Amino acid sequence: MKKSIFLTTLALFALAACDTPVTSSSPLPQETIDEALSNPNRMLLDTMMKMATANDMATETRFETNGSFRQSSRETTATTQSTMTSLFSFDMDATLETNDLLGSAPQAVLEVNINELRMLQSMSMMGQSMTQDVSFADQVLAAYYDEGMAYVDLSGAEDLLSSLAMGQLPQYKLKFPVETPAELGLSPQEMTSEDQEAFINDWLPFVDTIPGLEATISGTFLNIAYEITQEDFNQMVRDMFLGGTENITLTSEESAFLEMVIEDTIAMVTIHKMVFSLSLNLLTSQLTALLVDVDVEMNDTFTSSMIVDYDPENPNADEEGWVWEDMTIESLTVIDVFAQLTMESFAESRPLAILINKDEYELIDVQ
After folding, report:
1. Which pLDDT band, with edges at 50, 70 and 90, does 8 fall under?
2. How many C-beta atoms lie closer than 10 Å to residue 74's C-beta?
3. Is there a contact between 136 and 165 (Cβ–Cβ < 8 Å)?
4. Which is it for the CA torsion 351, 355, 356, 358, positive or negative?
5. How many other C-beta atoms are found inside a 10 Å radius of the C-beta of residue 26?
6. pLDDT for residue 168
7. Does the pLDDT value for residue 245 go beyond 90?
């Protein structure tokens, strides 16, 4: 899978496994370093709360992702076999810029670039096969907020949208009034310090259960990485199933059945890679980078029964005359996703140049 060279600018190299917690000299007070390294999960949640309620004058967020979801299955009986495969792959990036959201002239610009998108489905049954393979490239979606009005430009993704809608859309450039950026989910949340602390305390026990934690300090940044291995996943499955039996006495048969379920669940999932990385600027209390890299397989095989005929004279028919056959179903799902996000905030206003012809957009009622 493609990994953009843009990643090199994120300073996330420090998120790899390290022998020492501090990777470079830091201008941060030692007290801050000690607190961050002793409880990085709390520092992460605290930063999230501060960002959610921050009144930044301007922000810029960049997002890149590529990957695929593939699923295949095979159904086999004594007389028939059918197969089905589906694939969804993508490569896209997006940029969101905002300015003066709480001021007198709020603005926002969102651009989504769908560089590649493919949807494949194939089926084979009783000697017949069918395949549908659709691809799109260089599709662009854009949205703007300026002077109390939201503008949506779908004209750059006409091929994709026409295919999904099975025909041309009546209009590809739309506008509608928006009184405040809060209606678009862009404004900071209003939360008291008590609410923020309650959020942190509610989520901290869960975040603390995520295995494979590595925390390092690099300059003013706290770099946090969670790498979940196959062994970690296996233990998580055991904890999930056994956690509810701590105060219950199981019979030997129940214990054996529970162990079988655990082993079957573990056997279904193969973790090739599962990494989540974040970078926090401790001076500004901002999440500046996020990285997700997941490569997982899920497979399952089970037997079911299906009706294949109605023949009361058949000695294998049931009491109502239906003839059944055992069917073995084998399925495989592969998830391979890479995503990265960078964020930057500014204390000063950065007016956005929204260079569109606003008269080209059709006014719609979104009430």
Report:
1. very low
2. 16
3. no
4. positive
5. 18
6. 77
7. no
Rounded mean pLDDT of 162-188? 84
Contact 237, 266 (CB under 8 A): yes
| Confidence band for 6, pLDDT divided at 50, 70 and 90 | very low
Alpha-helix residue ranges (DSSP H) falling in 208-251: 230-242
pLDDT at 182: 85
pLDDT digits (tens, 9 = 90+) for 183-195: 888 877 788 889 9
User: What is residue 15's predicted lDDT score, i.e. its pLDDT?
Assistant: 36
As given in the structure block, the two tokens for residue 237 are: 């499955």
Yes or no: say if 226 and 275 are a contact pair by the CB < 8 Å rule. yes
CB-neighbour burial class of residue 84 (10 A; exposed 0-12, middle 13-18, buried 19+): middle
Q: What is the DSSP string of 135-176?
A: EEEEEEEEEEEETTEEEEE-GGGHHHHHHHHTS--S-SEEEE
Q: What are phi and psi of 30, to 5 degrees?
A: -60, -30
Rounded to whole angstroms, how far apart are CA atoms 200 and 210?
A: 15
Lowest mean pLDDT among 19-28, 238-247, 313-322: 19-28
Helix 30-38 crosses helix 40-52 at what angle (to 10 degrees)?
100
Q: What are phi and psi of 282, to 5 degrees?
A: -75, -20
Residue tagged 């801050």 (tokens): 32
Identify any residues that bridge with 135 across adjacent strands, giving them in sequence order. 118
CA Rg, the chain, in Å? Answer: 27
Chain centroid to CA 204: 20
Q: Are 15 and 224 in contact (CB under 8 A)?
A: yes
Which of 14, 50, 5, 21 minimizes the C-alpha distance to 283?
Answer: 50
One-letter amino acid identity for 44? L
